[in-house]
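Repro:
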Amino acid sequence: MPYFDLSIQNHIAHLILNRPDQLNTMDPVFFQELNEALKNLNQGNQARVLVISSTGKHFSAGMSLDAFGTSVAMDDQTPEGRAGITNHLADLQASFTRIEDLRIPVLVAIHGACIGGAVDLVSAACLRYASSDAFFCIQEINIGMVADLGTLQRLPKLMPMGIVKEFAYTGRRLPAQKALQYGFVNEVLPDRELALEAAFKAAAEIASKPPVAIWGTKQALHYARDHSTADALQQMGWLQSGIWSNAHVKEAIQGFTTKQTANFPDLAPLKPND
């Protein structure tokens, strides 16, 4: 059975984790299929936004320790073996970075447990909608290791550092309402269905905007997050000069004033090696 279901409708891609009997845990095949799905979405131009959700009782219990047994017991006896750990982690990190770098915004609907590697995954998304029963846990510290696939690098840019340290050091659960209070999730809904509905509502609004303007906005926000204000303003000038369209602005204003749906061209598809 595939690890994911992927569909595209009305310019919205929906990627569903669909191994509920395994708590949607992550093993090497999970990463292979995730990489392939993200690659195809990034190269294509049918989808203007991606929604990720899950099945079963929990969003995901994170890494499958059984499947990664040999990886958990990595070679720490030689410098050559320890050097290999770096490359192994880089491959796994790249999978979640693809979510962050996708040409289109990524929204996640989260319910139940979001543990370990699942926190790495959702931290790389743009927007997060949670059900009231959702909770997050930096589980790695509870099994004697450092979270290493992006949680510790991305969470401090989404929540106060002191809060991140508390949950990273203790391995405590972060309930959905607390995650909302700290700014990690955008909204908490009563149940899974309503969380997914909220994600799709936002996705539909995003899909109605000019795709190239959404692309440019995502580029500018990520650049500003990682650079000084002066550098980001300079980058904004270069970016705007490359994607500005009088036609898009006219179409958007006309649609707004007449209450009619505006029409915008899709992003150009990418060549397979892009």
